[in-house]
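Try this one yourself first.
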């Protein structure tokens, strides 16, 4: 689909007077629209809840907007738990899906009343020793191993990922043992969780994952007698980073999960199982832009456009070679007849937001919008080369702009140093 920014050039010029580029900006209307579409897609399941994956966008104002829309949080670290708590999100509204977990994090999760999702069989005893008991409500993460594939065609598989090579989750045998042991230690309500593929662009991913987990849940409940209260489809629903890619249809995805539910769980009498999701990317990616200004043009063996943002503000292109669409604001209708590398300032040659990409002729002072940066964008930022994290702004539904996080200053960067 054509990528149209949710802010205009005039708005950006006005915003930049108060908040100089680079900055991340998020669209409140879009975030609410996405959350409502997700809730509508799963409205057939009375217990449904989306637990927003905090790591995607750990910004309190955004967590609160999503909370107003009925979402909880999926936390995986001490600070994410603390942030949820400070946002007034607590109890069963927190899912704690971590791995390689320190004891103090289990302790805080329990104190906040979060639902703990265990990544490993050995964590059953670790949790029991840490807390002195096993919570009444508990979840376990499954990893089927092997390769997860979907939708084979001439171009290859629509979805392909490698759970067998992933550090997360338990084998089937371990899962049965964990359930039995947790039950013996007093657990009464059980959850089942798996994350098998990342950034999927297929309406069949969640339904296929759900079918696997539903069948497993039937076997688990039958063989261990544990009451399975919820099944957590986790994250992995992707977004169309490239304009030519098909977007996921969340209504179709919800409907596919419903069909799997009715064909596997319902006939086995499991009719009160709540469906949970832990989406990060799908909720936020397209509702955020990284806004940057062209600082320099350089003509050597290639044509370079140097901008004021760098990989420290958005790591995905440097780290994964990920594509992020870029709009040259005000030049949308000009022909794309110039080929550029759009680069940041890091002393790292992979600090490139675009390589050999066609644009209209760009000039110093042009404002560029880098699309789909609302999830795993700011949050993956880092301070390499002494680069500072940018501000995060919220475009309110009424068109006003609110500061959610100020830009770092050199004093922030120096604050932890002992001279
Ligand atoms: C990262 C993560 C998510 C969110 O993944 P997205 O691909 O952003 O939807 C959900 N659950 C867990 C356990 C994760 O690690």
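Now uncover the answer:
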């Amino acid at each position: 689909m054509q990528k149209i920014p949710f802010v205009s050039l005039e708005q950006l010029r006005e915003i930049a007077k108060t908040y100089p580029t680079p900055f991340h900006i998020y669209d409140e209307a879009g975030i609410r629209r996405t959350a409502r579409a997700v809730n509508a897609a799963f409205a057939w399941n009375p217990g449904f809840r989306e637990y927003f994956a905090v790591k995607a966008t750990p910004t309190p104002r955004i967590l609160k907007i999503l909370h107003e829309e009925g979402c909880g949080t999926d936390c995986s670290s001490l600070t994410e738990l603390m942030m949820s708590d400070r946002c007034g999100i607590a109890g069963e509204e927190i899912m704690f899906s971590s791995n390689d977990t320190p004891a103090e994090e289990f302790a805080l999760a329990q104190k906040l009343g979060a639902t703990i999702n265990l990544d490993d069989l050995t964590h059953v005893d670790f949790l029991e020793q840490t807390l002195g008991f096993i919570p009444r409500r508990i979840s376990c993460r499954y990893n089927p191993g092997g390769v997860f594939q979907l939708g084979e065609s001439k171009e290859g598989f629509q979805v392909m990922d490698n759970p067998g090579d992933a550090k997360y989750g338990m084998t089937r045998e371990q899962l049965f043992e964990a359930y039995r042991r947790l039950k013996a230690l007093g657990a009464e309500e059980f959850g089942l969780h798996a994350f098998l593929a990342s950034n999927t662009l297929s309406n069949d991913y969640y339904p296929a994952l759900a079918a696997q987990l539903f069948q497993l849940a039937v076997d688990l409940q039958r063989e261990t007698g544990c009451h399975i209260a919820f099944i957590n489809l986790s994250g992995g629903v992707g977004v169309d980073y490239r304009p030519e890619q098909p977007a996921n249809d969340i209504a179709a995805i919800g409907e596919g999960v419903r069909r799997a539910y009715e064909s596997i769980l319902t006939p086995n009498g499991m009719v009160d199982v709540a469906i949970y999701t832990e989406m990060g990317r799908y909720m936020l990616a397209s509702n955020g832009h990284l806004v940057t200004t062209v600082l320099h043009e350089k003509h050597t063996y290639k044509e370079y456009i140097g901008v004021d943002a760098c990989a420290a503000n958005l790591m995905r292109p440097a780290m994964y070679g990920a594509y992020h669409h870029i709009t040259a604001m005000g030049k949308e209708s000009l022909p794309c007849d110039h080929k550029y590398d759009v680069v940041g300032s890091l002393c790292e040659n992979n600090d490139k937001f675009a390589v050999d990409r066609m644009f209209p002729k760009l000039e110093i002072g042009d404002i560029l919008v880098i699309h789909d940066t609302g999830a795993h964008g700011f949050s993956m930022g880092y301070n390499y080369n002494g680069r500072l994290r940018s501000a995060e702004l919220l475009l309110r539904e009424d068109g006003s702009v609110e500061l959610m996080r100020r830009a770092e200053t050199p004093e922030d960067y120096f604050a932890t140093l002992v001279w």
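Discussion: The chain has a mean pLDDT of 97. The two ends are 52 Å apart (CA to CA).
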